Amino acid sequence: MNGAPAEERKSVLIGHISGVHGIQGWVKIHSLTEPREAIFEYQPWLLGESQEEIRIKQGKKQGKHLIALLEHVNDRDQAESLMNRQIAVYRDQFPELPETEYYWTDLIGLSVKLGNGTDLGTIKRMLATGANDVMVVQGDKERLIPFVQGQYIKSVSLVDAVVVVDWDPDF
After folding, report:
1. How many Å apart are CA 149 and CA 166, to the nearest integer?
2. pTM exceeding the 0.90 threshold for the entire prediction
3. CATH 2.40.30.60 occupies which residues in the chain?
4. CATH number corresponding to 11-93
5. How far apart are CA 61 and CA 135, in angstroms?
6. Domain spanning 104-165: which superfamily?
7. 35 upstream amide cis, omega within 30 of 0
8. How far apart are CA 14 and CA 45, in angstroms?
């Protein structure tokens, strides 16, 4: 042991506990993953602000809802104590993506620049529009830039934390 602090693992919000189901400790899950059921593929979950690690014993679709049975949650009272807790996972639990695909969580916070180096701002969030994803870039003003590689997106460097775009800065 060299005395250096362990590197803190980045966590990513993937949903929250939205209700209880039945009397045996099942909880309803609101998932932010795509598809929704993919939330069950990640273990452990990190619950709430304390990010307490908890494992899923069972998870399934129940009608329009997703429900889960969690370790050490054996009755409705225990399930109710988890209401509205956020569900996160460690970022390193995500599968690797092909070179030209990116997780939104990795894009948020990157600088957005034109090819000539002009800074347009920082990606504050991403939106799904159906046709394509859109970057919400905050700089001197807010810009909505479609995340269409080859057309508007010229390059993405996670290492340099920069997205180079072809975009009219007045738009």
Report:
1. 10
2. no
3. 11-93
4. 2.40.30.60
5. 31
6. PRC-barrel domain (2.30.30.240)
7. yes
8. 9
